[in-house]
Specification:
This protein is mostly helical. The protein has two domains: 45 residues, Arc Repressor Mutant, subunit A; 141 residues, Tetracycline Repressor, domain 2, CATH 1.10.357.10. The chain has nine helices and no strands. GO terms for molecular function: DNA-binding transcription factor activity; transcription cis-regulatory region binding. Keywords: DNA-binding, Transcription, Transcription regulation.
Length: 210
């Protein structure tokens, strides 16, 4: 009596991401790599490995490494915009809102130092990516709205709101960069909250009643 032929074991096919999910999966993988090793650690192959797909799969969504980095930067800028705008609208008066935007900006940089460096670094040629530039405009727009509110309240003298916004952003961005790069502690033994308080005291001088 012959034995019944043995059925071949079915090998399950790897479960890929559903259509529309891979872009997000690659983006999150790239963000993980940024947090783990900085922007220089990001590669399309590495993102593919983290996402569990073939090395060729990312090219359906991102032309090259720069395009992937640009997407990460765009998302980071939009998250920064959300943080600062939330702080601005929650404030009780124009001066408080102006300072709250700065506090939220510093908080974002302190929480996401590697992402922050990428957002304002030179890892990719930003002018090539319109969505990134638009996200940058949205981020600066929060600072500008805060300055415009101060101007409308008669708190900035004859200075245009654009100048007030630029001055405030430059000072806060500078402090954030000094902190995330570890320079602040080397040059001045002052914790970030104390340095921020000193900075905001100076900023307040520029938007106080006259």
């Amino acid at each position: 009596m012959r034995a019944a032929p043995r059925k071949k074991a079915r090998i399950p096919k790897p479960q890929g991401y559903h259509h529309g999910d891979l872009h997000r999966a690659l983006l999150m993988a790239a963000r993980d790599m940024v947090e783990e090793g900085g922007a220089q650690a990001v590669t399309l192959r590495g993102a593919a490995q983290k996402a569990g797909v073939s090395a060729a799969a990312p090219y359906r969504h991102f032309e090259d490494r720069d395009a992937l980095l640009a997407a990460v930067i765009t998302e980071g800028l939009d998250e920064l915009t959300t943080a600062t705008e939330t702080a601005r609208v929650a404030a009780s008066d124009p001066v408080s809102a102006y300072l709250a935007v700065g506090e939220a900006y510093l908080g974002f940089a302190a929480m996401h130092p590697s992402l922050y460096r990428l957002m304002f670094g030179i890892e990719c040629h930003k002018p090539d990516y319109p969505a990134l530039l638009e996200a940058g405009q949205r981020a600066f727009g929060v600072v500008l709205r805060a300055a415009q509110d101060c101007s409308a309240a008669g708190l900035t003298g004859t200075r245009p709101p654009e100048q007030v916004a630029l001055a405030g952003w430059s000072m806060v961005h500078g402090l954030a960069s000094l902190h995330v790069d570890g320079v602040l502690g080397l040059l001045l033994p002052m914790p970030l909250p104390d340095a921020a308080a000193a900075l905001f005291s100076i900023l307040t001088e520029g938007v106080r009643p006259r």
